[in-house]
Design goal:
Layout (H helix, E strand, L loop, with lengths): L6 H9 E4 L4 E5 L2 E4 L4 H9 L10 E4 L19 H17 L2 E3 L9 H8 L7 E4 L13 E4 L2 H10 L1 E5 L2 E8 L8 H12 L7 E6 L1 H4 L3 H9 L8 E4 L3 H7 L9 H11 L11 E6 L6 E3 L7 E3 L13 H14 L14 E4 L7 H11 L8 E3 L4 H9 L2 H8 L2 E2 L20 E4 L14 E4 L2 H10 L10
Parallel strand pairs: 3-4, 3-6, 4-5, 6-7, 9-10, 9-12, 10-11, 15-16, 15-18, 16-17, 18-19
Antiparallel strand pairs: 1-2, 2-8, 13-14
Length: about 475
């Protein structure tokens, strides 16, 4: 009788070609996703006169450096010459190698981690690599998706395989019914606050439990997207009827007999009863409140109803030191109620929270109200933007005073010129609150889309439950 296996083990074993003496395995890669960054990989291939082995298995997106305003002028709308060169390089590399390319003017352009699932590219059981760690978003569709470096991108382009060390598996079970107003962003911030930013180091997360099953596909994408911020290599959710309904009919989804065969295979993927995980964590979803980060790492977070902690409350000297530095940078005083922290601007966007569902949640709060601080909304893709406009969400946002922009990474990284001015405080739906992440000297508080909208109309970190 075969031993019970985890979903991760099933996928790994299907893709493992060989294992070296040093413990690294050679895996077949179903899809490789890149943005403007790994041009070194393309340059190295060209110098060695190597072709891309399987061009239709690599998909490229212009997302990190594209502007969110004035795109009708093409790359001339990119003010930074270095950023413009990177976007133009990606287009030239795509044309030369024959890989699939979604450039600035493409009607499906957007953030790679938003568009890939939209296209139905990720299927349960796949291995997907990406030039950005947040490719883990595709784990919501039960794919093993992880980030790789430029040298690995080169290897994948040339061979459609990658050398990688086998990670351990941690199952994170969240049971119970989430309160009204609680989103997947709150769930993942609560998880990271529990386990720490390095808590998942060397692991892949498998999310389980009734609260996880209750999430929409978009919510599961948020969860898997931020698994990286808990130190994990990837995050995954077992496939179910929601997964199948989401995929059916999408551009890259199987059709006809291939669909029927795929469904049969996908049903066999969830972890077997009795499968052993390397580590287990459990949370009561009914106790999770709207979450806000107060520091400069994602585990420096707490409920919006709480207060800024005193560094002395941390027993670990390293955590205490980190908290002291974080509060000094964030200009916060221990004991300050989170709801009394004022913000200077709001950003709703990023690969974490810029899908249609996210915009709907923000619009629920924004409707009939007015922003009191500069606030921008950057849809995760042009497809999301068109869908939101078809529902009239853009009119709600514009009436409230939000800026409604084109898709891209935008203020998540500040690499396209959308930045938070030095010394200003931003409520952001992005995934990282590091020092200077949104611009030199910027101060970032990570929140859900609805919480960000609440901050926009109050000018402070407000409790979304007061608005719905």
């Amino acid at each position: 009788m075969c031993a019970a296996k985890t979903m991760f083990e099933k996928i790994w074993e299907l893709h493992e070609i060989s294992e070296r003496a040093d413990g690294e395995s050679l895996l077949y890669v179903d899809y490789n996703v890149v943005h403007e960054g790994p041009f070194y990989a393309f340059d190295a291939l060209a110098q060695e006169r190597r072709p891309v082995l399987w061009p239709t298995k690599t998909i490229a997106f212009a997302d990190h450096y594209v502007p969110t305003l004035g795109r009708s002028r093409g790359t001339q709308s990119i003010a930074d010459p270095e950023a413009r060169i990177m976007v133009e390089q990606l287009e030239r590399n795509a044309q030369r190698t024959g890989i699939i390319y979604f450039g600035m003017a493409h009607p499906q352009q957007g953030i790679m981690h938003v568009v890939a699932p939209e296209l139905g590219m990720a299927h349960p059981g796949m291995v997907i690599s990406g030039s950005d760690s947040h490719i883990s978003t595709n784990g919501a569709l039960a794919a093993l998706a992880f980030g790789v470096g430029a040298s690995q991108v080169k290897h994948i382009l040339a061979t459609q395989t990658v050398w990688i060390r086998r990670p351990k598996v941690m199952r994170i079970t969240v049971d119970g019914r989430l309160q009204n107003g609680i989103s997947a962003k709150d769930v993942i911030l609560a998880i990271i606050a529990r386990i720490g930013i390095a808590g998942g180091s060397g692991h892949v997360f498998e999310y389980a439990g009734s609260a996880i099953r209750g999430l929409t596909m978009e919510g599961r994408m948020t969860l898997c997207n931020m698994s990286i911020e808990g130190g994990a290599r990837a995050g995954m959710v077992a496939p179910d009827e929601k997964t199948f309904d989401y995929l059916k009919g999408r551009q890259y989804a199987p059709r006809g007999k291939w669909w029927d065969d795929a469904i049969q295979f996908w049903h066999a993927l969830p972890s077997d009863e009795g499968a052993v995980f390397d580590r287990e964590e459990h949370l009561d979803g009914s106790q999770i409140e709207p979450m806000v980060t107060w520091g400069t790492y994602q585990d420096e977070a707490g409920p919006v109803s709480s207060k800024v902690p005193d560094p002395d409350s941390f027993s670990d000297p390293a955590r205490k030191s980190r908290a002291e530095k974080a509060l000094a940078y964030m200009q916060l005083t221990p004991g300050t109620p989170i709801k009394e922290i004022k913000v200077d601007r709001v950003f709703i966007g990023s690969c974490t929270n810029a899908r249609l569902e996210d915009l709907r949640e923000a619009a629920r709060v924004a409707k009939g109200r007015k922003v009191v601080v500069p606030s921008i909304i950057v849809p995760g893709s042009m497809t999301v933007k068109r869908a939101a406009e078809a529902e009239g969400l853009h009119e709600i946002f514009r009436s409230a005073g939000f800026e409604w922009r084109d898709s891209g990474c935008s203020m998540c990284t500040g690499s396209n010129g959308d930045r938070v001015p030095s010394g200003e405080r931003c409520a952001s739906t992005s995934n990282r609150n590091f020092e200077g992440r949104q611009g030199r000297g910027s101060r970032t508080h990570l929140v859900s889309p609805a919480m960000a909208a609440a901050a926009a109309v109050t000018g402070r970190l407000a409790d979304v439950r007061d608005f719905i």
